[in-house]
TrEMBL record:
Pfam families: adh_short. It is found in: Endoplasmic reticulum. This is Short-chain dehydrogenase. Keywords: Oxidoreductase. It comes from the Bacteria. Residues 22-203 form the Ketoreductase domain. Its main location: endoplasmic reticulum. PROSITE patterns: ADH_SHORT. It comes from Methylopila turkensis. Belongs to the short-chain dehydrogenases/reductases (SDR) family. Gene3D superfamilies: NAD(P)-binding Rossmann-like Domain. One of its GO terms (molecular function) is oxidoreductase activity.
C-alpha cells in the first residue's frame, strides 16, 4: 500500500476512529496481515502501537506510517513467553488504546509425529495462551473506557480438524471459540470482538510453515475486509477463498470437511525431492 500524507487529517474522524480511536495496538505488525492492518488503520487516522519481535522492521514501518501524520510507538516484544501482555500494558499505560489487533501467530505443517514438539508447544503459547493474556489485560482497559474493539485471528482451518496441520488447526479452533464467547461477555461493556478467519494469504506465514500456497488472498484484502467487519459481525471470512470454503464446506458433515481440508493441506506441502 502506498502511504500518503494526511488528506485524512483534514477529514472529520471516521465512525471507526470515533468508536475505536485514538490509538490502536497491532501485534504481528512487522509483517504480513498485521502490517497491512497497521497501514490501513494509519490511513484512517489511528495512532499505532506496533508490536513484534523485530525492532528494525517495526522502526522502518513506524517511519513509513509517520508520513501519514499519525503518531506511532514501537514495542519490540516476544509474546511467546508468559507475561508478554503485561509488558505491553506497561509500555502503553499512558496511551488511550481503543483497538487491539492480535495478529501475531504462526503455523506448522506436516504430521505431528514428524514435527519438533518444542515448536508445536511454542505455537500453542503464541497462538492461544498469548491471545488469552492480551484479551484479558486489554479487555479490562477497553471495558473500563466503555468502548473499544478486539480482533482475534482464527482461520478457515478453525472449523474442522485437518491432517497435516492438526495442532495449528486446533489453535485456531481455540481462538474462534474463545472469540465467540468473549464477544458475548464484552458486548454489554461496549467492546466489539471480531474473529477473522482468513483462507490462504500471501505473507511470510507459508514459508515459515513450510507450505506452498497457490491461489491466495493479499494481506491488504484481508486487512480491508477485517476492518470493515469490525462492529458489524462476530466472525468474518475475509477474501474469496475463505468465503468459498465457508459456503461449500459448512453444509458437509464435520468428518468430510476434515478429509477435504487434510487433502488441501497435503497439496500445499512441498513434494519430497525423490518424488520429483
Ligand atoms: N497467511 C495465511 O495464510 C493465514 C491464514 C489464516 C490465518 N492466518 C493468521 O493470521 C495471523 C497473521 O499471519 P500472517 O500471515 O500475517 O503471518 P506472518 O506474515 O508470518 O506474520 C506474523 C507476524 O507475527 C509476528 N510474530 C511471530 N512470532 C512472534 C512472537 N513470538 N512474538 C511477537 N510477534 C511474533 C511476526 O513478527 P516478528 O517475526 O518480527 O516477531 C510477524 O509480524 C496469524 O495469527 C495467522 O495464524 C494466516
Amino acid at each position: 500500500m502506498s502511504l500518503q500524507a494526511p488528506a485524512a487529517a483534514a477529514k472529520p474522524p471516521s465512525k471507526h476512529l470515533r468508536r475505536y480511536g485514538p490509538w490502536a495496538l497491532v501485534t504481528g505488525a512487522s509483517d504480513g496481515i498485521g502490517r497491512a492492518i497497521a497501514e490501513r488503520l494509519a490511513m484512517g487516522g489511528f495512532n499505532l502501537v506496533l508490536v513484534a519481535r523485530r525492532q528494525e522492521a517495526l522502526d522502518a514501518l513506524a517511519a513509513d506510517l509517520g508520513r501519514t501524520g499519525v503518531e506511532t510507538r514501537v514495542v519490540a516484544n516476544d509474546l511467546g513467553p508468559r507475561g508478554g501482555a503485561a509488558q505491553l500494558d506497561r509500555a502503553t499505560a499512558d496511551l488511550d488504546v481503543g483497538l487491539v489487533i492480535a495478529a501475531a501467530g504462526f503455523g506448522t505443517s506436516g504430521d505431528l509425529l514428524e514435527s519438533r514438539l518444542e515448536t508445536e508447544l511454542d505455537m500453542v503459547d503464541l497462538n492461544c495462551r498469548a491471545v488469552v493474556e492480551i484479551s484479558s489485560v486489554f479487555g479490562h482497559r477497553l471495558a473500563k473506557r466503555g468502548r473499544g474493539g478486539l480482533v482475534l485471528f482464527s482461520s478457515v482451518l478453525a472449523f474442522q480438524g485437518a491432517a497435516g496441520a492438526a495442532n495449528y488447526a486446533a489453535t485456531k479452533a481455540f481462538v474462534q471459540t474463545f472469540a465467540e464467547g468473549l464477544g458475548e461477555e464484552l458486548k454489554p461493556r461496549g467492546v466489539d470482538v471480531l474473529a477473522t478467519a482468513p483462507g490462504p494469504t500471501h505473507t511470510g506465514f507459508a514459508s515459515r510453515a513450510n507450505m506452498k500456497m497457490g491461489f491466495a488472498a493479499s494481506p491488504e484484502d484481508v486487512a480491508r475486509a477485517t476492518i470493515a467487519a469490525l462492529g458489524r459481525s462476530g466472525t468474518v471470512r475475509p477474501g474469496f477463498v475463505a468465503k468459498l470454503l465457508g459456503w461449500s464446506l459448512t453444509p458437509l458433515p464435520r468428518r468430510a470437511r476434515a478429509a477435504i481440508m487434510g487433502r488441501a493441506m497435503a497439496s500445499m506441502r512441498p513434494k519430497p525431492a525423490s518424488a520429483a
